[in-house]
Amino acid sequence: MNIQPTLENELIILRPLITSDFELLYNVAKDPLIWEQHPSSNRYKKDVYSEYFEDSINSKGAFVIINKSNNEIIGSTRFKPVYDVSTAIEIGWSFLSRKYWGGTYNKSFKKLMIDYAFESIEDIVFYIEKPNTRSQKAVEKLGGTKIIETIYQHLMYKGENAFTYRINKNAWNSINKNELNFNPFPEIATQRLLLRRLLQTDWKEISYLRTDAIVNQFVIRPKAENKEEALKFINRINNNIDNNECLQWSINLKDNTETIGTISLWNFSEDLKTAEVGYDLNPKYHNLGIMSEALKNVLYFGFYTLKFNSIEAYTQLNNESSKRLLLKNGFILNKNRSDENNIKNIIFEIKK
User: Fold this and answer.
1) Are 97 and 106 a contacting pair, CB within 8 Å?
2) How far apart are CA 245 and CA 226, in angstroms?
3) Is the pLDDT score of 149 beyond 70?
4) Given a cut of 80, is residue 177 above it in pLDDT?
5) Left if phi > 0, otherwise alpha if psi is -120 to 50, otherwise beta: which for 38?
């Protein structure tokens, strides 16, 4: 793969960085607010930036970002090979003039790079410093997912100071064709939790969640009273995931492999604009903010990775804890809708 081509779309031109770009690019980089969440927060100083610029030139993978409408240099970015991994490339070292912040230009130049890279490779990674929440959210909106699974160890940042975000070619193509593709399964890591795929070894916890009187007080659903029934449920869910018909995550504390609850996105509309969320949690972990933490992250994934416009939740009208959870996380009760399959249910909705 040529890591320093010239690329363009209707908004942006990306061309190889050259030495004579220094002054025009420094006019962008000298804004201190661009670097405020970066470990090198003094990069707006000319002597510090000079070292950064020289490193960019020597990388032979750096670009200037040009606004096509007025030929203005508005930032810079870079491709870098992932060490010892021929099927992946890193995108990073990106910055934009603040007057172009807000999504359109950032998304435009990154999409240009991603589309080009996926002509040759399978994975794109972003190594983003932990304090840089602005960049993390921007990559998540593109479809990047934070990875911690050992099967992706070869892609992960070698150190403690940055998160690794990954975009896979198959997932990118599906999202941009308005299709869903859950291969590989999208694990989600939060501050305290790991949301992962259900395993057959989770059968005892699944059986408990689907038979416990408190968990099922307001829910009408088939039980899983023994190992055989629990395994059938897990296999059915995983088959549906393989067919891109639903997503169901096991909720785990990061320091514990035990499933303490589940959360799902399912019941997708034909146009893939709407989904339903469902959840359950071991009562031992109630009132600790765990389900709210899981729900926030699943909603973000649903809106910004899967591109849903609306997510619904059906809950029993007397289920006060579920109603509080939904209202706390921005859902609004739709008084004009009813559940034709259960007259005791009420429907909450949240829009992107």
Assistant:
1) no
2) 26
3) no
4) no
5) beta
Is the dihedral angle over the CA atoms 102, 35, 63, 116 positive or is it negative?
negative
| pLDDT tens, residue by residue, 269-310 | 878 889 999 999 999 999 999 999 999 999 999 999 999 999
CA 51 to chain CA centroid, nearest Å: 33
pLDDT the model gives residue 150: 66
Backbone dihedral region of 244: left (phi > 0), alpha (psi from -120 to 50 degrees) or beta? Answer: left
Domains, the chain, ordered by start: 7-176 (3.40.630.30), 188-351 (3.40.630.30)
Give the N- to C-terminal CA distance of the chain in Å, as an integer: 37
Is the distance from CB of 30 to CB of 146 less than 8 angstroms? no
Within 10 Å of residue 147's Cβ, how many Cβ atoms? 22
Residue 48: what residue type? V
DSSP-H helix ranges across 37-168: 46-59, 104-117, 133-142
Q: Which residues lie closer than 8 Å to 110 by C-beta, 6 or more apart?
A: 77, 91, 94, 142
Single pTM value for the model: 0.64
Q: Is-cis flag, bond preceding 222, omega within 30?
A: no
**Residue 346 near residue 332, CB atoms below 8 Å:** no
Q: Which amino acid is at 26?
A: Y
pLDDT at residue 103, rounded to an integer: 63
